[in-house]
Amino acid sequence: MALQYSPQQKHPVMARAEALAGAGRPEEAMLLIRQLAAQGHPDGLFVFARNLWGGGALASDPVAARTQFDLAAKAGHGPARIVSTNLLASGIAGPRDWVAALARMSGEVTIDPRRKAQIDLLAKMALTPAGNPETCRKPERLSDAPDVLRFPGFATAAECTYLLESGGKNYRPAQINDGRGGTRLDPIRNSDEFTIHWLIEDPVVHAINRRIAAVAESDADRGEAIQLLRYRPGQQYRSHYDYNPQLDNQRVTTALIYLNHDYKGGETNFVKTPLKFKGRKGDLLLFRNILPGGAVDPLSEHCGMPVISGTKHIASRWIRAERFVP
After folding, report:
1. 18 and 149 inside one domain
2. Is residue 114 part of a domain?
3. % of the chain beyond a pLDDT of 90
4. Fewest beta carbons less than 10 Å away: which of 51, 55, 80, 245?
5. Residue 305, domain CATH
């Protein structure tokens, strides 16, 4: 269960619920949380929302979870207000109102100091009233087969720094689903990763996602959450396809933002072609994983070569064929 929030003065019902969850009695714990939420208690609403979002003791229901986050925010719960504004800006699991979301941010600086940095960054972005980029960088074609484009200077130095800092101390070894509802270490990748998941996809990250969608000629709601990837010396991503034959909603395009370039090695190598690429800080690499008919492009097979020295940081976003966000 996602019972992570701990206010300074914890409600006794919340304390009992956490004890029950820790004792392996999640259904009883959730009953108490539901009761607390029904009373309009902000902590109960927030924890109920977290569990509705992530599933576990409850079936995952992001739309219902967003409603509970909004209620918790109106009841005065600070972290819920941050989440509520993030979702309002992105339109994930409910309506999108970019202007209203931005108007709320100045009142949230005392809740989350990063809001100030976000406000400052957004002011430097050339955005339409809907939060889309006014203009986009022109691409440099690196290859026709596979279809690979480079967008020089796609992200500013300040945006790269912001994304880098978003990872903080939250990185963990790269994992994949184990097919049984759990995860296991990725056998072909030994890098570290952190996902900027939808609850923490703040307006700065969402504006960058919309910029990626614009240059990919796609929609922002087709993108998976951004993954921050860190490669230390010796770490690599062995040869693979981003196309996954098990997916009904296919990963048609891959976008990689290079957040730094002060490292040796680590090139993105399209192994069946002569193309080997190392981006400069702020560059975006965009490549198609499928052929016009929808089949996998065999030439899209690629690897992240071992880093020799320094640390490589990139932000990765897979773009699906159809809407992917809830």
Report:
1. no
2. yes
3. 86
4. 245
5. 2.60.120.620
Whether the per-residue pLDDT at 73 is higher than 60: the answer is: yes
Phi, psi of 264 (to 5 degrees): -110, 145
Give the range of the structural domain holding residue 252, as residue numbers without chain letter.
140-320
Entry pTM: 0.93
Task: Answer yes or no: is 169 within a domain.
Answer: yes
How would you write the chain as a 3-class SS string?
CCCCCCCCCCCHHHHHHHHHHHCCCHHHHHHHHHHHHHCCCHHHHHHHHHHHHHCCCCCCCHHHHHHHHHHHHHCCCHHHHHHHHHHHHHCCCCCCCHHHHHHHHHHHCCCCCHHHHHHHHHHHCCECCCCCECCCCCCEEEECCCCEEEECCCCCHHHHHHHHHHHCCCCEECEEECCCCCEEECCCECCEEEEECHHHCCHHHHHHHHHHHHHCCCCHHHECCEEEEEECCCCCEEEECCCCCCCCCCEEEEEEEECCCCCEECCEEECCCCCEECCCCCCEEEEECECCCCCECHHHCEEECCEEECCEEEEEEEEECCCCCC
Number of domain units in the chain: 2
